[in-house]
Amino acid sequence: MTTGKPLLRALAGETLPVPPIWLMRQAGRYLPEYRATREKAGDFLSLCYNSDLAAEVTLQPIRRFGFDAAILFADILLVPQALGADLWFETGEGPRLSTITGPGDMAALKPADAIHDHLSPVYETVRILSRELPPEVALIGFAGAPWTVATYMIAGRGTPDQGPAHALKAADRATFEALIDRITEATIGYLSAQVEAGAEVVKLFDSWAGSLLGDDFDRYSKAPAARIVSALKARHPGLPVIVFPRGAGEAYAGFAPATGADCIAIDQDVDPAWAAERLQPETCVQGNLDPRLMVEGGPALTEAARHIRDTLSGGPHVFNLGHGITPDADPDNVHRLIEAVRG
Ligand code: CP3
Questions:
Q1: For the segment 181-199, what is each residue's pLDDT rounded down to a tens digit?
Q2: Residue 315's domain is classified under what CATH number?
Q3: How far is the CA of 32 from the centre of ligand 1 (A)?
């Protein structure tokens, strides 16, 4: 049986008359109250590790917009940091990390079960949220998928084509696979601890899955996701899991059944009609409005939102963007979007 929370009902496979809605990066720089709280924390990472303020920014978009779900405020790169990597954010540029280039760097990382002291403020954020969220709002925990996290750990930064990770995979497969394994183990423990602290759903972000082709996609996106989902479901029976192998294209098909996930999140390049025909019979679909429309607004936003809602109305659907909302988005457009979806 499902509870009354719309998100949990959709993830359980129910077709609802109005899809639940939340947005990737719904807590973020496009909101003045987020910018004020981040200022108070000092910087982005201090905000992630300040449980009270991280809970506060998680709640801000819930109060302002009345979304159906809150997503824990944290970052996928906290796991590498907990494994011993150096991590900092260059203003206006993005993350920087110490790099993994060979077996020596791998040997210097901590074991997967040694991450929890470092990450305990995140678990405390989840505990605060599970007390403070309105009863109809579901709480989503998350982590980066092993491949996506590995691309940052290997390159030491975000890369347009994940070149350094592909190069290490080709040159030193043993080190590359040891890294994927270490992140996989750490992610199971990290997500499990989030669930124990009160997360009701977890989402795995494989933002760079689209650059893995053929066998590599199966081995380094699908297989680690399957391992994570099965370990989590063994520990937490019935836990709903959302997977997001962004950019997977045709390979979105079959991903949820192969991994045991309950929902597949899709990016804005997927035709909703294809998703309705090919994905919804096998799983709940989350997505997939183009985030640029949150900047543009106007009738294009309303029409695109209704088109996605109507096209996916014959099966389980969670309304979301195809990727995170951007800092230049207009908060008023979020109101317009919610009106279009619920109206
Ligand atoms: O969705 C949410 O609201 C929850 C919080 C969340 C953040 N990052 C906060 C954040 C989540 C789920 C993430 C996931 C994340 N982080 C991903 C996967 C999803 C995706 O976007 O593809 C990735 C690849 C990262 C790594 C990361 N974190 C990058 C590359 C950057 C810099 C780029 C940018 O947008 O500035 C971040 C920083 C980050 N993570 C911000 C936020 C709100 C902006 C930091 C700030 O406030 O200055």
A1: 999 999 999 999 999 999 9
A2: 3.20.20.210
A3: 17
